[in-house]
Specification:
With about 290 residues, the protein is mostly beta strands. The protein is built from 1 helix and 19 strands.
């Protein structure tokens, strides 16, 4: 038995090497090695570091100016400015579309078109569970939003009072509690998230109402989807200029310097839920034309 089992494989290999079978005269297929499948290298995980008490990243991609990484903790902090009482409880102009007046959430849905899950208490809506967005679509606009950071203040950096105002549902103006709370500069309150830090830190203490007054011009795309002109945004935070007709580099995102994809001339206004119960009130918008006269 042992002799046969040792001999048969040898004979089979000899016959296979000759390219035929002596008993049936049919070709014998040559053996082929199994293909080698390359295993993709695992995605590199960015390492969070701390510089002067600020957490962030220094191994993300560089901003287009080549000076700072996205969410770089070494990027200079915006100067602190004590604001006056600018536009809290500002009455909407006669031609404004009132998106929230404290009565109901009828202008809002979640991102999938379902009823908004945010809480309505005493004329204030509080972020919960997921983002919400307007049913209406807007292009160039003037937008007024008031928000209040939760008390008692807990967490630090990006984990403290985090939310956001998304223009066209994709370009975020950061909402964060940066009162006595440092974070990477391109993620600070009133920043174009991940791209442009605010020109000033005009935050009020948590529990006090604050305001954004935003003027936004939409980006424009050509027939082949090419970018003809970027979006531009001006932001006043509590009456202090935080963005001055600042060009937006594309859709905002975590650890992303921004990138444009073609889209239509209008989009929703969205408010972010980021695991913190940020309150909002007195939200209104005015569609505005762009006048190119010299």
């Amino acid at each position: 038995m042992n002799t046969k089992f040792l001999w048969l494989p040898v004979l089979a290999s000899v016959l296979a090497g000759s390219g035929c079978c002596t008993s049936c005269k049919l070709p014998v297929a040559s053996a082929k090695a199994a293909p080698v499948v390359a295993t993709p290298a695992p995605a590199r995980k960015n390492v969070e570091v701390m510089v002067d008490g600020v957490s962030g990243f220094q191994d993300t991609v560089l901003q287009p100016d080549g000076k700072w990484h996205v969410h770089d903790p070494a990027r200079p902090q915006p100067p602190i400015v004590s604001p006056g009482n600018f536009s809290q409880l500002a009455a909407p102009p006669s031609d404004a579309i009132v998106l929230f007046d404290g009565k109901d959430l009828s202008h809002w849905t979640d991102r999938n078109g379902n009823p908004p899950p945010w809480k309505l208490n005493d004329g204030v809506m509080v972020s919960a569970r997921q983002d919400i967005q307007t049913k209406e679509q807007f292009g160039d606009l003037q937008l007024h939003v008031e928000f209040r950071e939760p008390t008692l203040a807990t967490g630090e950096g990006q984990g403290r009072g985090n939310s956001g105002v998304f223009l066209m549902g994709r370009y975020e103006i950061q909402v964060l509690d940066c009162y006595d709370n440092k974070t990477y500069a391109d993620g600070a309150t009133a920043g174009v998230y991940g791209q442009h830090p605010p020109l000033a830190n005009a935050c009020l203490p948590p529990g006090e109402w604050q305001s954004y007054d935003i003027i936004f011009n939409v980006p424009h795309f050509g027939p082949a989807g090419e970018l003809l002109s970027p979006g531009y945004v001006t932001v006043l935070h509590n009456g202090v200029v935080a963005q001055n007709h600042q060009a937006i580099r594309g859709a905002t995102g975590w650890k992303s310097p921004g990138q444009y994809t073609p889209h239509g001339p209008t989009g929703p206004i969205a408010l972010q839920f980021h695991n913190n119960p940020v309150a909002f009130r007195n939200i209104w918008v005015r569609p505005v034309p762009v006048v190119d006269d010299p």
